[in-house]
């Protein structure tokens, strides 16, 4: 069963997380669970989302809210009584949902690039707005992505262009701008 306690416990168990809570919030698609973490070492919301998703059941039962992602904050906000200010976290989650929520790749080119990033980065469910570096992208993974793009599309791409594109959607837009015809569905 997916619940706030399970999500918070998964996040607290990580060495790169100093403190964590999870809460329910309506981000526009019904009630969802969002984790919020204070970092102990560098980590990113998309990477934590992927790691938590690997551990949670594939589909929530009918009594569970869906897991939306992980909000990374400098410090968990405190209420006047010293507890975590969940109202402030809900406000931040609504304001910054695009930073941590999974965004489905749109169209065959984005889907192809997301699958390529998943292979190169060794992670699952890469979203259209997930940042290459925040997912753990390094020079080896960049070389893999660049090589595959060149092989599949006959297009030269350098590491700076990949870093500037940053996301699957950004890279797809760059490729289309450079003359790649989006793949048919």
Structure notes:
This protein has 185 residues and is an alpha+beta fold. It folds into 2 domains: 4-100, ANL, C-terminal domain (GMP Synthetase, Chain A, domain 3, 2-Layer Sandwich); 107-177, ACP-like (Non-ribosomal Peptide Synthetase Peptidyl Carrier Protein, Chain A), CATH 1.10.1200.10. 44% of the residues lie in helices and 15% in strands. The protein is built from 7 helices and 3 strands; from the N terminus they run αββαβααααα. Strands 1-2-3 form a 3-stranded mixed sheet, sandwiched between helices. Helix 4 (107-121) packs antiparallel against helix 5 and helix 4 (107-121) crosses helix 7. The protein starts with a helix and ends in an 8-residue tail after the last helix.
What's the CATH topology label of the largest domain?
A: GMP Synthetase, Chain A, domain 3
Specify Rg, calculated over alpha carbons.
18 Å
What is the percentage of strand-forming residues? 5-15%
Tell me roughly what share of residues is in helical segments: 40-55%
The total number of structural domains is 2
Classified by CATH, the class of the largest domain is Alpha Beta
């Amino acid at each position: 069963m997916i619940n706030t306690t399970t999500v918070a416990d998964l996040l607290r168990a990580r060495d790169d997380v100093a403190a964590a809570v999870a809460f329910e919030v309506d981000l526009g698609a019904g009630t969802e669970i969002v984790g919020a973490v204070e970092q102990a070492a560098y980590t990113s919301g998309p990477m934590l989302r992927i790691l938590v998703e690997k551990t949670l059941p594939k589909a929530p039962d009918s009594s569970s809210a869906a897991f939306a992602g992980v909000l990374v904050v400098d410090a968990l906000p405190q209420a006047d009584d010293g507890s975590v200010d969940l109202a402030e976290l809900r406000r931040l989650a609504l304001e910054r949902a695009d930073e941590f929520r999974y965004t489905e790749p749109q169209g065959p080119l984005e889907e192809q690039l997301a699958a390529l990033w998943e292979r190169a980065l060794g992670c699952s469910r890469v979203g259209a707005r997930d940042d290459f570096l925040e997912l753990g992208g390094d020079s080896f993974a960049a070389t893999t992505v660049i090589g595959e793009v060149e092989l599949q599309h006959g297009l030269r791409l350098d590491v700076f262009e990949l870093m500037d594109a940053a996301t699957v959607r950004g890279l797809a837009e760059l490729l289309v701008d450079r003359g790649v015809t989006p793949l048919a569905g």
